[in-house]
Write a structure and sequence with these properties.
Blueprint (H helix, E strand, L loop, with lengths): L6 H27 L2 H26 L1
Length: about 60
């Protein structure tokens, strides 16, 4: 017995799943991108970069 194709059902299901994913991606993106971890990491790396620059400028001044 051959399988009956139901293109309209498949299209509606595909569209529905995409709408659900589209509506849930924004809060997930905001949570991940604006998590406090990234701010702490950015500040820590900035301090490390400044320390390396200061250390490098002290070594070249000698």
């Amino acid at each position: 017995m051959p399988h009956r194709a139901r293109p309209m059902t498949g299209l509606l299901l595909f569209t529905g799943v995409n709408l659900v994913l589209l509506n849930t991606i924004t809060p997930v993106y905001d949570f991940v991108c604006f998590h406090p971890y990234w701010e702490r990491r950015r500040e820590r790396r900035q301090k490390e970069r400044k320390a390396l620059q200061a250390n490098g400028s002290l070594q070249t001044a000698k």
